[in-house]
Design a protein that fits this description.
Length: 187
């Protein structure tokens, strides 16, 4: 696990299953219709039970780059923040800005709802085909920028399913925040 201090918050990287995270909120890589699906979205809906889908139906829609919040159902988290990442179309169609918007808007909701700890998956890198190394840089940069200017969110954890994704995020942390200096937890 990697842990870095960013402003008043901690940014962590870990490998694992996001549905097992005991944090205030987990973030779901949702689709615009909030209908559930495969990957992280399907796993969250299966683990959390029908109350999450019920809440999503009431909301109805979320546009790409935005986020909404629901109950977490049976999950250890208290809330699920659903965000819709962009489908990769070569990078010339606003994908980086939309992806950064997913992270910023999710964290804005967390701050508004007093959700002090948030776990993110790697948004848009599954069926939406966003290249993991590019997505990792966008994600880490957007989260770090948000964390530097606030004090409501105390912990952001990227929960990454496989080693290759974890390694891409570890490289992005070093690129965006600089190399870790032994004994220095600030960034």
């Amino acid at each position: 696990m990697i842990s870095r201090q960013v402003g008043a918050a901690t940014l962590e990287l870990s490998r694992g299953d996001i549905t097992h995270q005991a944090v205030y909120a987990i973030v779901n890589a949702a689709n615009e219709g909030l209908r559930g699906g495969g990957g992280v979205d399907g796993a969250i809906h299966r683990a959390g039970g029908p109350s999450i889908m019920e809440a999503c139906r009431k909301i109805g829609h979320c546009k790409t780059g935005d986020a909404v919040v629901t109950t977490a159902g049976l999950l250890p988290a208290k809330r699920v923040i659903h965000t819709v990442g962009p489908v990769w179309r070569g990078g010339e169609h606003g994908e980086p800005d939309l992806l950064a918007g997913c992270y910023r808007r999710s964290l804005e909701i967390a701050a508004e709802e007093h959700l002090e700890s948030v776990a993110f998956p790697s948004i848009s890198t599954g069926v939406y085909s966003y290249p993991v190394d590019r997505a990792a840089r966008v994600a880490v940069k957007a989260v770090a920028e948000f964390l530097r200017d606030q004090d409501a969110v105390k912990l952001v954890r990227f929960v990454l399913f496989d080693r290759a994704t974890y390694d891409a995020y570890a490289a992005a942390v070093e690129e965006v925040l600089g190399p870790q200096i032994p004994g220095d937890d600030s960034a």
